[in-house]
Design a protein that fits this description.
Arc Repressor Mutant, subunit A, globular, mainly alpha, single chain, disordered C terminus
């Protein structure tokens, strides 16, 4: 039991360090040596928990989504909208935060197309059910259609990261939502309520609460807060 608990602690510490390094100095700019030094582990321990630095990036991305989902569920009691709202908040913070933009831009540059492989692009395939499952089952979408939407969204996100002054993040996100739905063949009546609902929820969230700690450990699951 002690070894298991120590293993969990070590893994969390590695993720915590990666979260700090990838945010503060950049994913590409971070070396294995940097991670080992700050996490106080050797290469063997690092590889035991993560087969590659890419796996660490995947974990950090999930950390961000969990954090924003915790915010979303305080202001949106309908579970089918919570991940969509979380991603909308995420895009807003990417737009505002230069260091977060760099982290996301590097993902866009490294993975501009979806190939179906279990790499960083698979993150978006995995989160599909949480974001869209209530509106359209994944089985109704071909790999080609998913690849088309992924490429479109990645291109838009990259444009926003490179030229933040030109784009409104919420409008850009909802543009991607509508375009993805069209590519996937989701009937208009199934998504017609998404935009006004997301916009309404965004207006309820105080600016100071649209924040997660980008450089600390895993966000605790937040209780659901009901709002009128």
């Amino acid at each position: 039991m002690g070894h298991y608990e120590n293993g969990i602690f070590t893994r969390k510490e590695i993720i915590k360090v990666c979260k700090w390094l990838f945010y503060e100095q950049g994913y590409h700019e971070t070396s294995y040596s940097d991670i080992c030094r700050l996490a106080h582990v050797n290469r063997g321990t690092l590889y035991y928990h993560f087969s590659s630095k890419e796996d660490m990036r995947y974990e950090v991305q999930w950390e961000y989504i969990i954090g924003f989902k915790n915010i979303a569920q305080r202001y949106c009691i309908e579970p089918q909208y919570q991940y969509l709202l979380a991603m909308c908040i995420f895009w807003k913070k990417i737009h505002e935060d230069e260091k977060l933009r760099r982290f996301q831009l590097q993902i866009c540059m490294d993975y501009p197309v979806y190939t179906g492989k279990k790499d960083m692009t698979y993150f978006y395939y995995t989160i599909y059910e949480a974001m869209w499952g209530a509106f359209w089952e994944k089985k109704n979408i071909s790999q080609l259609a998913f690849s088309s939407a992924y490429g479109f969204v990645t291109g838009c996100l990259r444009m926003m990261c490179e030229y933040p002054e030109k784009y409104d993040p919420v409008d850009m996100f909802m543009h991607c939502v509508g375009s993805s739905a069209a590519i996937w063949g989701i009937p208009e009546e199934k998504i017609s309520k998404i935009w006004p609902h997301i916009r309404s929820c965004m207006e309820k969230i105080p600016e100071e609460e649209m924040y997660i700690n980008f450089v600390d450990g895993r966000e605790d699951e937040a209780p659901v807060k009901t709002t009128s």
